[in-house]
Amino acid sequence: MTANGGGPRTVSTSESSRSGSEFESDRSVSDEAPLGGPDASETILESRDLDVFYGDEQALQSISMEIPEQQVTALIGPSGCGKSTFLRSINRMNDLIDVARVEGDLRFHGKNVYDEDVDPVALRRKIGMVFQKPNPFPKSIFENVAYGLRVQGKDDGDVEGKVRTALERAALLDEVEDQLDSSGLDLSGGQQQRLCIARAIAPDPEVILMDEPASALDPVATSKIEDLVEELAEEYTVVIVTHNMQQAARISDKTAVFLTGGRLVEFDNTNKIFENPENERVEDYITGKFG
Ligand SMILES: Nc1ncnc2c1ncn2[C@@H]1O[C@H](COP(=O)(O)OP(=O)(O)OP(=O)(O)O)[C@@H](O)[C@H]1O
């Protein structure tokens, strides 16, 4: 974890120092402060009164939180409490689910990503995603990563250099340097997941969303992914869903606890959540009284 102090409830009025370009806009501050908020870091993502529905079922209820840039934010909570739904709402992956409906704001660099003028494809260029099960394409290792560039229109110039850089950042280059033309499907599960991470970071996003990226992996591969996540946060903002509380405690700077009913119950520095949570139900969850 990186060292970041500061209180749990703050309202940011400052803009992010990073580009944001087409996503930047004026920021308005509502009366009710969101949970979390920046301390040493600036806010890069902010949800305000975010509700998500699947048909008539409400999966998230009025989620307000601020996610700091270049840190690891973990989303934890029991099954079905809406962690993946929240993650997918950040880069509009819920758009792909017919019955899903989103109300409220989800701001990236202060701009609501649900505004009509936001192109979801451009958004996903800035906010990449890695899924639970490694899902490399049936292509070579090189092509798997180059695909990430091509699909994002970033295959101009030095594709080979960009592929190698992405593989290096994903801590995979050393292991595959001599077999870039071999199929990505021939790699181990852990290597496949790092290949997917390389594919996600090749177009140079600002945020990487990870939905239980290590849950299908053995302990050694999991440990490599955890080390990698911490390294990635030196350059990117990472938001990670995990069922594994020890993992959240090990690798995240901030932890958001969602509980049944799709509510965000507590969001604070990870040390605080695990050592001295404010909410009794969070304490019960952390100590394993319910799962
Ligand atoms: N595509 C979908 N269509 C309809 N309902 C859905 C869909 N995806 C999720 N839900 C419902 O939304 C609620 C939240 O689900 P979500 O997957 O976000 O929770 P989660 O906390 O990530 O769960 P888990 O830890 O089991 O992955 C659940 O009641 C789930 O059944």
Automatic annotation (TrEMBL):
Database matches in InterPro entries: AAA+_ATPase (IPR003593), ABC_transporter-like_ATP-bd (IPR003439), ABC_transporter-like_CS (IPR017871), P-loop_NTPase (IPR027417), PstB-like (IPR005670)
GO CC annotations on file: membrane
All copies of domain ABC transporter, residue ranges: 45-286
Residue segments, region Disordered: 1-42
Keywords: ATP-binding, Cell membrane, Membrane, Nucleotide-binding, Transport
GO biological process: phosphate ion transmembrane transport
GO molecular function: ATP binding; ATP hydrolysis activity; phosphate transmembrane transporter activity
Biased composition (Low complexity): 9-22
Cited Gene3D superfamilies: P-loop containing nucleotide triphosphate hydrolases (3.40.50.300)
PANTHER family: ABC TRANSPORTER I FAMILY MEMBER 17
Cited NCBIfam families: 3a0107s01c2 (TIGR00972)
Annotated protein name in UniProt: Phosphate ABC transporter ATP-binding protein
Gene source species: Halobiforma nitratireducens JCM 10879
